[in-house]
Amino acid sequence: MCSMGFARSLGFALLPLAVCCIMANILLFFPGGEIQYVQQERLSRLIWFMMGIGGGGVLMFLPAGVFISLGSCTGCCWNESFMMCGSVMAALVGLAGSGYCFIISAMAMLEGPQCFTALGWSYPFANEGGRYLMEKDTWSKCLQPVSIVEWNVTLMSILLGLSGLEFIICVLQVINGLVTAVCRPCCYKQDYTLNA
What stretches pass through the bilayer (predicted)? Predict the structure, then answer.
């Protein structure tokens, strides 16, 4: 299969992942579908880093667009090599964006949500190193927003999974682009046979 066709398929795979990252990040701003917490600035501080909207979302449209625009193999060695080098640069941007989304989401998951407890608004799980994730009985510490721990854990897990897939796709294109740019398999079509 032509390396440019493979790159196009990777680009089409990135688009829904980016849209889903944006949607997951937006939902983090409205726990339980309520808007009062964003108005009162009672959300976890790391949510404001826009990891899903910026890193895993909007930034991923650049590599997706570049991969999709590659088209089919043209048979021109230098044109294909140049285009694939450009796609490698775009894939590096995608790696940065997906990596940012993954890291911030992981940090937010470890810190836990800001919520109203018996002691007021705080981060009750911040110093536990993520231990609360295995201790569901402690989630009841958070009284408001209702089910905020489940809300955050679910959406952060989605962001971690999506950004991980985006990262893998961009790594595949870096490999694909470098191999194509260096070896130019569409140019040198040779049949290799095994000698007995």
Answer: 12-31, 46-70, 82-110, 153-175
